[in-house]
Amino acid sequence: MFIALAVFLAASSVACGEPAPESTRQSRSDTVDTAAEPIAPARYLTNFMFAGADRTAFFGKFDQTTNQRALLRTYDAWWAGSDGWTELLRLRDTLPVPRAAWRVLPATAMQVQVGDAREVVALTFPAPSGRVELRANADASVWTGPTGQRESIGFATLVAGGEAASGILFFRRAARALQFPGDPGEGRGFVMADSAGNGLLIETDRSDEPAVARTWFDGAVASWDSVTFVADSVSADETARSWRFEIPGAALSGTIRAIPEAGVPAFRIEGDLLADGELLRFTGLAAPLPLP
Is 20 part of any domain? Predict the structure, then answer.
């Protein structure tokens, strides 16, 4: 099954443009390892998008800007379960500039655990119904994003209310030195998973086309360029509510529908995919993916 999709792409484990690994460390407090000397002002955007096959979802956006004196943080995170979206974190503060200004730092309402290469391996939040923890298990593919930073798709577990859900995690970091002008455009990411452990990621630019996709089917990851991706229906406020896509040469096409919800910039989606003539049901989420 999925013979046309089983094109394996080897991926580098360390992305261009990131600091070299230093040591294993777990960050669980607000302690900041401050820089010894001033660093160039820059902005870093980090996104976490988790899609579970049971419609469980997580969306986190971490916006950090440095100047010569301070690091300005704007952190937001939500998770979605059977009762809809719940806000986990809304943080606006200023810290001394750390040595690694790109790194997502812990906060009073969020613990951060990092691995050997200083990548985030877990985020933990207190919540009224019990702690919520997003834990990365293993990467399926790692690549360099449009600003030279790390992006990856892999497997993760979301624990909420004592229940654990397995799914697909998309990690994305983008960066810009403030001496250069920013990109006013905004793309989107669509992350989906099914009950068999298959996954699909579609990234679009501001005009939807051309789109790129990464698939995880039957244990093989593949990357696809020039994906046809178009809005199929648009609401009264000109917001797309469903989309059609086709991956040329992969025998994969489908439709994606938005699940109407309010209150967060991300929204849950469901999709019907036709892969090698077989119909598959996927669930996931979509969210804006701006550049700094």
Answer: no
**At 82, is the pLDDT very low, low, confident or very high (cuts 50, 70, 90)?**
confident
Structural contact between residues 235 and 258, judged by C-beta atoms closer than 8 angstroms: no
Query: Which pLDDT tens digit goes with each residue over 55-69?
Result: 999 999 999 999 888
Torsion of CA 229, 232, 237, 238, to 10 degrees: 50
Long-range (24+ apart) CB contacts under 8 A made by 248-256 are: 248/224, 249/4, 249/224, 250/4, 250/5, 250/215, 250/222, 250/224, 251/4, 251/5, 251/275, 251/276, 251/277, 252/4, 252/5, 252/215, 252/276, 254/282, 256/190, 256/192, 256/286
Its pTM surpasses 0.90: no
Which pLDDT score is estimated for 267? 92
Q: Does residue 49 belong to any structural domain of this protein?
A: yes
10 in a domain, yes or no?
no
In a domain, 148, yes or no: yes
End-to-end CA distance of the chain: 40
What tens digit of pLDDT does each residue of 187-238 get?
899 999 998 889 999 998 866 567 999 999 888 889 998 899 988 877 766 5
Count the neighbouring beta carbons within 10 Å of the beta carbon of residue 184: 8
Residue 124 structural domain: 40-290
CA distances from 143 to 7, 43, 121 (A): 16, 20, 17
Q: Which of 22, 139, 156, 38 has its CA nearest to residue 97? A: 38
Q: How many domains, in total, are found in the chain? A: 1
Rg over alpha carbons for the chain, rounded to the nearest Å, is 19
